[in-house]
Amino acid sequence: MRNNNIFKFIPAISKKNLISKIVFTLFLLTLLVPLFADTIPVRVIANTEDTVGKSLASNFRHLIRTSSAYHQTYSTDGIHFVIRLDTLDKNKGQYGMEGFSTIYSYIILIEAGDGFQLFLTNGLGYSGSLIAHKTAQDIYNYLDDYIETLLQLLNY
């Protein structure tokens, strides 16, 4: 019989402590969402080593900065959403093929301000240099839809 205990992979945090942090984070979110009802704070953490990935991250940050719904934050204080964007050149090491496409991964988290992060969702894909701006827009649209759905679930 297989043990499907999801907490066995988190040895440093007890089950009770983890569940209480998750509940506390969701409770904070329900209390603090009205406080940033004008704009929602988002921290973008990009780990890009390739030119297409840098373009993708730059385009995504630009969308957050110019958004009427979000504002970019660099602070780790307070509750906010975190977007981790990692990229890698799809053709790294292949002479003449580098710099045309990237493989990307993004993770959407909520950070409670004390370093505790709650995983929400993630995505994986690849993008060419000519459509990096569209890929950034697609990630932004997904983030926007996801946060809107989350806020609807919380009745905001």
Compile the SSE list and pairings.
Layout: H1 15-32, E1 40-47, H2 51-65, E2 70-72, E3 80-89, E4 101-111, E5 117-128, H3 132-153
Parallel strand pairs: 1-2, 1-3
Antiparallel strand pairs: 3-4, 4-5
Helix pairs in contact: 2-3
Describe this structure in words.
- This protein is an alpha/beta fold and 156 residues long.
- The chain has helices at residues 15-32, 51-65, 132-153; strands spanning 40-47, 70-72, 80-89, 101-111, 117-128.
- Helix 2 (51-65) links the parallel strand 1 (40-47) and strand 2 (70-72).
- It has one domain (12-149): Rossmann fold.
- Helix 2 (51-65) crosses helix 3.
- The protein is 35% helix and 28% strand.
Structure classification: alpha/beta
* Distinct helical segment count: 3
The CATH topology comes to Rossmann fold
Radius of gyration: 18 Å
The 3D shape can be described as elongated
**Termini, distance in Å?**
43 Å
